[in-house]
Amino acid sequence: MWGCGGRRRRRLGALLLVLLLGGLLLRRFNWSSLVPLQLRGRTLGLQAENSEFHLEGMPFRIFGGSMHYFRVPKEYWRDRMVKMKTCGLNTLTTYVPWNLHEAANGKFDFSGNLDLEAFLTLAAEVGLWVILRPGPYICSEWDLGGLPSWLLQDPEMQLRTTYKGFTEAVDAYFDHLMTRVVPLQYKKGGPIIAVQVENEYGSYAKDPQYLTYIKMALLDRGIVELLMTSDNRDGLSSGYVEGALATVNFQKMDYSFLDFLDKVQQNKPKMVMEYWTGWFDSWGGPHNIFDADDMVNSVAEVLKTGASINLYMFHGGTNFGFMNGALDSDEYKPDVTSYDYDAVLTEAGDYTSKFFKLRQLFTKIIGQPLPPPPMITAKASYGAVLLPQYVSLWEVLPSIVEPVKSEFPVNMENLPVNDGNGQAYGYTLYETVISGGGQLHSRDHVRDRAQVFVNTVFVGFLDYNTVELSIPEGQGFRQLRLLVENCGRVNYGLMLNEQRKGLIGDVFLNKTPLRNFKIYSLEMKPGFMESLRGVTAWSTIPDYAVGPAFFRGNLQVQYLPRDTFLKLEGWEKGVVFVNGENLGRYWKIGPQETLYLPATWLQPGNNEIIVFEERTAGRIIQSVDMPYLGRTHYLD
Ligand code: GLA
């Protein structure tokens, strides 16, 4: 008994000792270690309270690079981010394209390649901070600067202003978007250290209330990180909004830009939000190149001043589908499919000399060696692909597209298709019956380019420069057809409200307006391509095959697919679809001659290629292992 009682007392004594020691230890215990690692000490975030940035109280410099998830296949995001990291960058910046996330009013898509949260989480995993640029307008050589085309259904629409029709749509979109973004902010444990308010509003500046409205729209929905604005030369003085850090955009080092920042906001850190590493290309122009040494020297100069920087673009990627934007200063100029941008990585994610020069520069500044860059990825040349099957647009149309009947021409955004959202991109065919020939006059109502046919006979083009055409006389009733292409909406400048496409007003034959149309919406979305695949009219290509028509063939891939480039020599103008996906436009006027085809769009075995050619078909396309983006032009 005693022995037993003694043991019990000893055990009790030991227990008390443990509790006592435990209590002492607990008092000294650092509770913060129990808080998930990513939340520990995250109270201050990125601050811009004096001449340098602080992140969580420690001096911090932003070495950023832009890469847009919507321009790069999801499977390649990590590779590109690791390359960013091994170049010496610590921050990734991305835009958010409203027009892809809300293609139909009220229906949101954040899946697959649009999985913004997966992209941001991956950035955090790779060890990159994020500056998010949610727009709603993003510019970026992207159709309508990222705004959905259904906004233009309202004839009174005033984009990028506090016009009610616009702000209501922004509110509904931000309500949805911000619930995804808010938990990924720095203070919540995520990678987002700053959020940009709109984009270069100073160069648009139509409404003095607008920037404040967007700023409040962010704050009201729980954005707590540092706010920034970003402006180019044209907008420096009017792009500032109280409560957001102003930053500038340029290519050649210009001290006056940085001095300007000191004037609008004293004693704040300086940042070049868009240091343009290259430039984009327009159809009909050259392929722009910005010399690697000039670029690195300018970056070095910026960094010497102590400023932070973001390289726009670090990796440009591709304007897949019909998503390219356009410029219209004195002339309408649509952008090409490639967004290679002569950036730090190529369109296909490969290293350029800019990468290695920058890596050297950042290694010196950081003062320690950077991790080794990932291996290069081999590209494939699959050789010639025959396209032996053919079907003309005229043959397939009646069976796969239900036309809209209208007395008057209707612009594509206002067509009663896509559950009331109108047609956003692609081609629209306007068909009417005529009983004679004469002068056809567009009164500049064609947006952007129309092929004109009498029945199936090509008569000519109408566009911004050509507004008049002779229609030959003929017997009886004939069909007059205008196949109008939306070549891409303007993404920069004061013309945003004028971006309705198709026929935007009357077209006249001998001064009489055309009436009673059948209008076919040809957006060529996956559903359309699926129906096209099933039509019985496919036949062997005739000796003389002209567009508008579809041409079909197979790209054979043995083993694991690799990235390749499709060369469209001999083809005139059109679009390429691979396994039903729209790879983008080609046009013989160049500069771009090859389309980037990522391996992720291919599968081992057969891969269906369909080309929609407007005019002259080339019969084969070549799969090559090198891009050719055209005759180069060095930017001064
Ligand atoms: C501006 C815009 C970007 C992009 C560049 C040019 O700086 O903010 O979105 O359009 O010009 O590439």
Automatic annotation (TrEMBL):
This is Beta-galactosidase. It comes from Gopherus evgoodei. The keyword Hydrolase applies. The active site is at E200 (proton donor), E274 (nucleophile). Residues 53-364 form the Glycoside hydrolase 35 catalytic domain. Pfam families: BetaGal_ABD_1, BetaGal_gal-bd, Glyco_hydro_35. Its EC number is 3.2.1.23. One of its GO terms (molecular function) is beta-galactosidase activity. The keyword Hydrolase applies. InterPro entries: B-gal_1-like, BetaGal1-like_ABD1, BetaGal_gal-bd, Galactose-bd-like_sf, GH, Gly_Hdrlase_35_cat, Glyco_hydro_35_CS, Glycoside_Hdrlase_35. It catalyses: Hydrolysis of terminal non-reducing beta-D-galactose residues in beta-D-galactosides. Belongs to the glycosyl hydrolase 35 family. The gene is GLB1L2. Keywords: Glycosidase, Hydrolase. Residues 548-607 form the Beta-galactosidase galactose-binding domain. GO terms for biological process: carbohydrate metabolic process. Residues 422-523 form the Beta-galactosidase 1-like first all-beta domain.
